[in-house]
Specification:
The protein is α/β, with parallel strands linked by helices. Helix content is 38%, strand content 16%. The strands form 3 sheets. It has an 11-stranded mixed beta sheet, with helices on both faces.
Length: 529
């Protein structure tokens, strides 16, 4: 089984269309393929665990997948029992055949969860509800999920954990908390963002013999270094600092100088040729003792010639900040807006209009609350559909946008979207957004296109935090400044090695496995893994 590279991500609507096109005449039938693929993952999980397997099957096709899984375990000498509370006469046709095949193989079903054997279950399997569930789970199935979650054994979800919205990652009620999830045909957004990663565990992707892009063109992708590998070019020996751009940071109002310095330091250590920090606080030091290479200036005295500018870290929201931001928006250079710059724009229609009218590249890096202000909706509405929110921000402001959070959503004005899976909960700490701004700024200053700079910067930031955690630094208590050095290390690894090798390990890709063929990237090219 290979480790996962870049893969497309499809919505439930697109998955249903792919199934509609593939179902007629498919041999073996899709349910057989899915159930057998899940059975292989189950066999891997119980290889060294004695005892029977408990499979909870629901009243639809997800339950049919579970019946196939249980039958295959029986055929390979493992005891498997099924809890099934539905009406057999109301099962879909394929699921009814799967149930009959399981019974013919000697399987038994129980109308309720059976008591655990003396030595416990080797594995519990959730095959209750699939990707189409749009409502909270109630009644007996809700009770089942609570009981299954309490079992001390590996827990495998078939396609998606029951109770998880496969499009958004929302959990509107109870949800099966899996240690492993086997998903079919393509990755779904809800597995990768919001609450999805907390409920899915390790994801095993199984194509079941279907190339989804042959049926529906992909608009979404899971981020991997192959997406931006064309820009990972080692520097020539005959180089000078003028080749790597002049970057500026605008921010650092009274009491918030550190935010601007974090962004500037990140830009410096990711290779920008020269970095200037325009600081609003009149009492700020004239030099950064930790990094005297930085050139600190009063906020209004940033050089006229910059290649890229990040505005917002510690900027404040006063009249002077608004004036400086207006000037920044008017510059014909790559511009990144974060933090207070986003808050100013959200309440100033004239600035919002000017931002959307820019001809140079624009990058926005909001967290959910800032995104809500920019779209004039509550934060809960942003989190209810993170993908839609990121796409709307990118469209409205004509900017490459990342909606930060678990499974950061990156969207382009053209309607492409990406989900990043590097990073961990230790990144929920002060200053992390400032560091991200500086990393992306460095790539913009070095000539990267806005979309590639944002995708790479987000992925790099998470990979740096992951590397630190594996070295025993964090996740709890990880400081934003610590990720800057680690980001430099990871980035240089990328430059010196095939990124599919340096970042392909499960520990660095978010715990996802696949068995896939070459995947087309966002430009329609074939990427060899």
């Amino acid at each position: 089984m290979s480790t996962l590279s870049v893969l497309p991500v499809y919505t439930v609507r697109d998955i249903r269309e792919i199934e509609r096109q593939c179902l007629p005449g498919a041999q073996p039938p899709l349910m057989e393929r899915a159930g057998c693929a899940a059975a292989r993952d189950a066999a891997r999980l119980i290889e060294s665990r004695p005892g029977p397997v408990l499979v909870a099957c629901g009243p639809g096709n997800n339950g049919g997948d579970g019946f196939v899984l249980a039958r295959e375990l029986l055929r390979h000498g493992r005891e498997a029992v099924v809890a099934f509370a539905g009406d057999p006469a109301r099962l879909p046709e394929d699921a009814a055949r799967a149930r009959a095949s399981f019974l013919h193989a000697g399987g038994k079903t129980f109308a309720d969860l059976p008591p655990a054997p003396e030595n416990g279950w080797a594995l519990v399997v959730d095959a209750l509800f699939g990707i189409g569930l749009q409502r909270p789970i109630v009644g007996q199935y809700r009770d089942w999920i609570g009981a299954l979650d309490a079992i001390s054994a590996p827990r495998l979800a078939v396609d998606v954990p029951s109770g998880l919205d496969a499009d958004t990652g929302r959990v509107p009620g109870v949800c099966f908390r899996a240690t492993h999830t086997t998903t079919f045909i393509a990755l779904k957004p809800g597995l990768l963002t919001l609450d999805g990663p907390d409920y899915c565990g390790e994801i095993s992707f199984q194509s079941i013999g279907i190339d989804p892009s042959a049926h529906v063109a992909a608009a979404g992708w899971r981020v991997a270094p192959e997406i931006f590998s064309a820009w990972l070019v080692p520097r020539p020996r005959n180089a000078h600092k003028g080749m790597y751009g002049d970057a500026g940071v605008l921010g650092g109002d009274i009491g918030m100088t550190g935010a601007a310095l974090l962004a500037a330091r990140a830009a410096l250590l990711l290779g920008a040729g020269r970095v200037y920090a325009g600081i609003l606080d009149p009492g700020a030091p004239a030099c950064d003792p930790a990094h005297p290479e930085l050139m600190l200036r009063p906020a209004g005295q940033l050089p006229a010639r910059l290649d890229a500018l990040a505005a917002g870290p510690g900027l404040g929201t006063g009249a002077r900040a608004r004036h400086l931001l207006q000037e920044a928006i008017g510059r014909d250079i790559s511009l990144l807006l974060d933090a207070d710059a986003l808050n100013i724009v959200s309440r100033d229609p004239a600035l919002a209009e000017a931002l959307a009218a820019r001809q140079a590249a624009t990058v926005l890096t909001p967290h959910p609350a800032e995104a809500g202000r920019l779209l004039a909706v509550p934060t809960d509405e942003i989190q209810a559909d993170r993908r839609a929110a990121a796409l709307e921000l990118a469209r409205r402001y004509r900017a490459c946008t990342v909606l930060k959070g678990c499974g950061s959503l990156i969207a382009t004005p053209e309607g492409r979207w990406y989900i990043n899976t590097t990073g961990h909960s230790g990144m929920a700490s002060a200053g992390m957004g400032d560091v991200l701004s500086g990393l992306v700024l460095a790539l913009l200053a070095q000539g990267w296109p806005a979309g590639m700079a944002l995708i790479a910067g987000v992925h790099l930031h998470g990979a740096a935090a992951g590397r630190l955690a594996r070295a025993g630094i964090g996740p709890v208590g990880l400081g934003a400044s610590e990720t800057i050095i680690a980001a430099r290390e990871v980035f240089n690894d990328w430059l010196c090695a095939d990124p599919s090798v340096s970042q392909g390990r499960l520990a660095e890709t978010g715990g996802i496995r696949d068995q896939e063929s070459p995947i087309p990237d966002s430009r329609g090219l074939t990427l060899n893994k």
